[in-house]
Amino acid sequence: KQWYQRRVAITAGGRPGTVEQALRTSRTAATARPATTASGRYVRLGTASMVSEPGGPFIEVANLNLSKYATRVGLNKCLFDYFFYKEGDVRTAMDLAALATKAAEFQDWWWKQQLGKCYYRLGLYRDAQKQFESAIKDQPTVDNYLYLSKVFIKLDQPLSALETFESGMNAFPGETSLIVGCARVFEGIGDQPKSIQAYRQSLVYDASCVEAIACIGTQHFYSDMPEIALRSFRRLLQMGVVNTEVYNNIGLCCYHAQQFDMAITCFERALEFSDKTNCADVWYNIGTVAVSTGDLTLAEHAFQLALIMDNNHAEAYNNLAVLMIRQDKAERARAYYLSAIATNPDLYEAHYNMSILSQQLGDLNTAFKEIRKALEIFPDHVDSKNIYDNLKQYFTML
Question: Is the pLDDT of residue 82 over 60?
Fold first, then answer.
């Protein structure tokens, strides 16, 4: 009884049962009495790196002996996740994964996957490819197929990525993440029909796939079918996806379907959920609807608000310049066109409008240069071709 009381008195110095108490005390004996031998000192030195200091990091990464912890089956994975996700120290995580892979005699597919993720983050795509391929041979999983396809996309090999997705779909039939990934690759290489087909296939297995519904609705919208696209975006609202983008797309569908009153209401709801990143686009769309309805005052205010939210909105500069021309303010319009061109040099409308304004002001050289730039961006623009032919004929006669 006396021995038990003495033992309690010794352990009462710290909080019993805590991780810090377990790390600070040695584990050379069955009791928690501090060791005074050399072996106890070495144990304390080994665990000192795992003890957090007040105001310091949770774990002193630089003081860790990775070779020691790589062989501990339960602890090594936790340490890797801490290095990779919490600290963002990819190189230390990679060293730990390499040591753990070696300790497992290169038979653990999980460590191969983690090593491939480290190589991917460091830009070593070929090494990552080897690790993911080896992991798939040991244990085919959905994540391994997805990571390997990401490597091929980074290497600009979309066909190899498609082959990887097809292999994954053969191993895991009906896996929507693989089908959606295949649809993304088709969309990236410009094969829209196959992309939409893949998105439709994913909806067969998962009718609540938000990305597939949104992409199908977008495809219908740009195919001049706003009424059908409206059904897809309304479906997203019914599923509980309530954000600025959904209301903005519904407003655009209503606008192109000649439902102007409903479009304004949707844009008002979009503004309620908007922030600094997407508020400018909503105001720009409101201005476009106002121009169509003939409310030019509202349109001007809407485009100005779009520029206040985002002063790099080239389309708002261009449309505001058009309104300035209607008010016979040529110099202000010219300044807005120049701002639009400086913000987005690939906006062919700004070059085209700048060419027309320069013609009206008698600056034919600037008009000819701008119309050439417009045709370089959009060679099939008929109006630009006509202006270019007229100016070319004029300069040839000189």
Answer: yes
